[in-house]
Design brief:
The chain has 213 residues and is mainly beta. It has three helices and 14 strands. The strands form three sheets. It has a seven-stranded mixed beta sheet. A four-stranded mixed beta sheet has the order 11-8-10-13, with no helix packed on it.
Length: 213
Protein backbone atom coordinates (compact mmCIF):
# COMPACT_ATOMS: atom_id res chain seq x y z
CA UNK A 1 0.00 0.00 0.00
CA UNK A 2 1.29 3.47 -0.91
CA UNK A 3 0.64 6.16 1.69
CA UNK A 4 1.31 9.90 1.54
CA UNK A 5 1.22 12.42 4.38
CA UNK A 6 -0.67 15.62 3.54
CA UNK A 7 -1.83 18.79 5.28
CA UNK A 8 -4.89 20.91 4.67
CA UNK A 9 -4.13 24.44 3.50
CA UNK A 10 -6.06 27.63 3.04
CA UNK A 11 -7.07 28.75 -0.45
CA UNK A 12 -4.87 31.29 -2.18
CA UNK A 13 -1.69 30.18 -0.37
CA UNK A 14 -0.07 28.25 -3.22
CA UNK A 15 2.98 30.52 -3.56
CA UNK A 16 3.59 30.54 0.20
CA UNK A 17 3.36 26.77 0.30
CA UNK A 18 5.96 26.37 -2.50
CA UNK A 19 8.42 28.66 -0.71
CA UNK A 20 8.34 26.31 2.28
CA UNK A 21 9.34 23.25 0.24
CA UNK A 22 5.79 21.97 -0.18
CA UNK A 23 3.61 21.43 -3.25
CA UNK A 24 0.00 22.70 -3.41
CA UNK A 25 -2.51 19.99 -4.26
CA UNK A 26 -6.22 19.27 -4.22
CA UNK A 27 -8.31 16.17 -3.57
CA UNK A 28 -11.86 15.76 -4.86
CA UNK A 29 -14.30 13.04 -5.88
CA UNK A 30 -17.69 12.35 -7.37
CA UNK A 31 -19.35 12.70 -3.97
CA UNK A 32 -16.62 14.69 -2.21
CA UNK A 33 -16.02 18.43 -2.27
CA UNK A 34 -12.57 19.68 -3.23
CA UNK A 35 -10.09 20.09 -0.37
CA UNK A 36 -6.87 22.11 -0.76
CA UNK A 37 -3.72 20.35 0.45
CA UNK A 38 0.01 20.91 0.84
CA UNK A 39 2.47 18.01 0.43
CA UNK A 40 6.19 17.71 1.04
CA UNK A 41 7.82 18.07 -2.39
CA UNK A 42 10.28 15.17 -2.01
CA UNK A 43 7.65 12.77 -0.67
CA UNK A 44 5.27 13.65 -3.49
CA UNK A 45 7.95 13.13 -6.14
CA UNK A 46 8.77 9.69 -4.70
CA UNK A 47 5.11 8.62 -4.63
CA UNK A 48 4.48 9.97 -8.14
CA UNK A 49 7.35 7.89 -9.55
CA UNK A 50 6.08 4.79 -7.76
CA UNK A 51 2.34 5.13 -8.28
CA UNK A 52 1.88 7.03 -11.54
CA UNK A 53 -1.76 7.36 -12.53
CA UNK A 54 -2.77 3.76 -11.87
CA UNK A 55 -1.86 2.84 -8.27
CA UNK A 56 -3.97 3.68 -5.23
CA UNK A 57 -2.42 6.30 -2.94
CA UNK A 58 -3.81 6.60 0.61
CA UNK A 59 -3.74 10.19 1.86
CA UNK A 60 -3.21 10.64 5.61
CA UNK A 61 -3.27 13.76 7.77
CA UNK A 62 -6.28 15.65 6.44
CA UNK A 63 -9.25 14.18 8.26
CA UNK A 64 -10.02 10.52 7.64
CA UNK A 65 -7.79 8.48 5.38
CA UNK A 66 -8.68 8.72 1.70
CA UNK A 67 -7.91 6.19 -1.02
CA UNK A 68 -7.10 8.18 -4.15
CA UNK A 69 -5.56 8.11 -7.59
CA UNK A 70 -3.18 10.79 -8.84
CA UNK A 71 -5.38 12.36 -11.49
CA UNK A 72 -2.96 14.98 -12.79
CA UNK A 73 0.39 16.56 -12.01
CA UNK A 74 1.73 19.85 -13.32
CA UNK A 75 5.46 20.15 -14.01
CA UNK A 76 7.51 23.32 -14.38
CA UNK A 77 8.51 23.61 -18.07
CA UNK A 78 12.10 24.66 -17.27
CA UNK A 79 13.10 23.03 -13.98
CA UNK A 80 11.01 19.88 -14.41
CA UNK A 81 9.89 20.07 -10.77
CA UNK A 82 6.34 19.33 -9.68
CA UNK A 83 4.26 22.45 -9.08
CA UNK A 84 0.75 21.04 -8.43
CA UNK A 85 -1.11 17.74 -8.09
CA UNK A 86 -4.74 16.63 -8.33
CA UNK A 87 -5.97 13.55 -6.44
CA UNK A 88 -9.25 11.78 -7.19
CA UNK A 89 -10.96 10.23 -4.15
CA UNK A 90 -12.27 6.72 -4.77
CA UNK A 91 -15.68 5.59 -3.56
CA UNK A 92 -15.72 2.51 -1.37
CA UNK A 93 -17.22 -0.48 -3.15
CA UNK A 94 -17.23 1.30 -6.50
CA UNK A 95 -15.20 0.33 -9.55
CA UNK A 96 -13.16 2.93 -11.38
CA UNK A 97 -12.68 3.49 -15.11
CA UNK A 98 -9.07 4.07 -15.98
CA UNK A 99 -6.59 3.85 -18.86
CA UNK A 100 -3.81 1.43 -18.00
CA UNK A 101 -0.47 1.40 -19.88
CA UNK A 102 0.58 -1.77 -21.70
CA UNK A 103 3.95 -3.39 -21.05
CA UNK A 104 5.29 -5.43 -23.98
CA UNK A 105 7.24 -8.43 -22.68
CA UNK A 106 9.24 -11.15 -24.40
CA UNK A 107 10.81 -11.20 -27.86
CA UNK A 108 8.86 -11.69 -31.07
CA UNK A 109 10.38 -14.40 -33.34
CA UNK A 110 8.95 -12.48 -36.29
CA UNK A 111 11.37 -9.60 -35.66
CA UNK A 112 14.36 -11.94 -35.72
CA UNK A 113 13.40 -13.03 -39.25
CA UNK A 114 13.39 -9.44 -40.49
CA UNK A 115 9.71 -8.55 -40.16
CA UNK A 116 8.29 -5.44 -38.51
CA UNK A 117 6.37 -5.32 -35.23
CA UNK A 118 3.71 -2.59 -35.30
CA UNK A 119 2.46 -1.46 -31.87
CA UNK A 120 -0.89 0.24 -32.44
CA UNK A 121 -1.99 0.75 -28.82
CA UNK A 122 0.07 1.56 -25.76
CA UNK A 123 -2.80 1.63 -23.24
CA UNK A 124 -6.32 0.26 -22.85
CA UNK A 125 -9.27 1.41 -20.77
CA UNK A 126 -10.76 -0.88 -18.15
CA UNK A 127 -13.23 -0.72 -15.27
CA UNK A 128 -11.82 -2.35 -12.17
CA UNK A 129 -12.09 -2.51 -8.37
CA UNK A 130 -9.54 -0.17 -6.72
CA UNK A 131 -7.82 -3.01 -4.88
CA UNK A 132 -7.13 -4.76 -8.20
CA UNK A 133 -5.76 -1.74 -10.06
CA UNK A 134 -2.69 -2.81 -12.07
CA UNK A 135 0.25 -0.47 -12.53
CA UNK A 136 0.48 -1.82 -16.09
CA UNK A 137 -0.82 -4.76 -18.14
CA UNK A 138 1.66 -7.20 -19.71
CA UNK A 139 1.36 -8.14 -23.40
CA UNK A 140 3.38 -11.24 -24.33
CA UNK A 141 4.75 -10.83 -27.86
CA UNK A 142 6.79 -14.06 -27.87
CA UNK A 143 4.01 -15.83 -29.81
CA UNK A 144 4.20 -13.48 -32.77
CA UNK A 145 5.98 -15.63 -35.35
CA UNK A 146 4.61 -14.94 -38.83
CA UNK A 147 3.42 -12.04 -40.94
CA UNK A 148 -0.21 -11.36 -40.04
CA UNK A 149 0.08 -12.58 -36.45
CA UNK A 150 -1.50 -10.11 -34.02
CA UNK A 151 -2.83 -9.59 -30.50
CA UNK A 152 -6.24 -8.01 -29.87
CA UNK A 153 -7.35 -5.95 -26.87
CA UNK A 154 -9.66 -8.79 -25.87
CA UNK A 155 -6.64 -11.10 -25.53
CA UNK A 156 -4.92 -9.03 -22.83
CA UNK A 157 -5.16 -10.71 -19.42
CA UNK A 158 -7.09 -8.55 -16.92
CA UNK A 159 -7.53 -8.67 -13.13
CA UNK A 160 -10.46 -10.76 -11.92
CA UNK A 161 -12.67 -7.75 -11.17
CA UNK A 162 -11.85 -5.89 -14.38
CA UNK A 163 -14.00 -5.35 -17.45
CA UNK A 164 -12.56 -4.18 -20.77
CA UNK A 165 -13.89 -0.81 -21.97
CA UNK A 166 -11.69 -0.52 -25.07
CA UNK A 167 -13.16 -2.29 -28.13
CA UNK A 168 -11.99 -5.90 -27.87
CA UNK A 169 -11.43 -6.11 -31.64
CA UNK A 170 -8.84 -3.34 -31.63
CA UNK A 171 -5.38 -4.54 -32.56
CA UNK A 172 -2.71 -4.04 -29.91
CA UNK A 173 0.27 -5.23 -31.93
CA UNK A 174 0.74 -6.98 -35.28
CA UNK A 175 3.45 -8.31 -37.60
CA UNK A 176 4.03 -6.83 -41.05
CA UNK A 177 6.45 -7.88 -43.75
CA UNK A 178 9.49 -5.73 -44.26
CA UNK A 179 9.43 -4.27 -47.78
CA UNK A 180 12.59 -2.60 -48.99
CA UNK A 181 11.89 0.62 -50.85
CA UNK A 182 13.51 0.71 -54.27
CA UNK A 183 15.17 3.91 -55.40
CA UNK A 184 13.35 5.57 -58.27
CA UNK A 185 15.29 5.45 -61.56
CA UNK A 186 15.47 8.89 -63.13
CA UNK A 187 16.10 8.85 -66.91
CA UNK A 188 18.44 11.41 -68.47
CA UNK A 189 16.61 14.46 -69.85
CA UNK A 190 16.22 14.59 -73.66
CA UNK A 191 17.16 17.78 -75.53
CA UNK A 192 14.29 20.09 -76.35
CA UNK A 193 13.14 19.72 -79.98
CA UNK A 194 13.64 23.40 -80.77
CA UNK A 195 17.21 23.47 -79.56
CA UNK A 196 18.30 20.05 -80.87
CA UNK A 197 20.75 20.00 -83.82
CA UNK A 198 19.43 18.61 -87.09
CA UNK A 199 20.40 15.01 -87.82
CA UNK A 200 23.50 14.62 -89.99
CA UNK A 201 22.60 14.69 -93.71
CA UNK A 202 19.25 16.36 -93.17
CA UNK A 203 18.54 19.76 -94.64
CA UNK A 204 17.60 22.48 -92.22
CA UNK A 205 14.23 24.09 -92.79
CA UNK A 206 14.47 27.55 -94.36
CA UNK A 207 14.18 30.43 -91.95
CA UNK A 208 10.82 32.21 -92.05
CA UNK A 209 11.00 35.70 -93.59
CA UNK A 210 10.11 38.09 -90.83
CA UNK A 211 9.20 40.76 -93.43
CA UNK A 212 6.67 38.59 -95.21
CA UNK A 213 3.13 39.81 -95.04
Amino acid sequence: MITLEVQERGKGMADTVRQGGFIPAVVYGRTEAATSLSIDERKLEKVWKEAGHTSVVTLEGAGEKKETLIKEVQVHPVSGRLVHADFYALEKGKKVKISVPLSFVGEAPAEKTGNILVKALHQIEIEVAPQDLPHSLPVDISKLTNVGDHILASQVALPASAMLITNGDETIVSVRAFVEEKEAVVSAPTPAAAGAPAPEGAEAAPAEDATAA
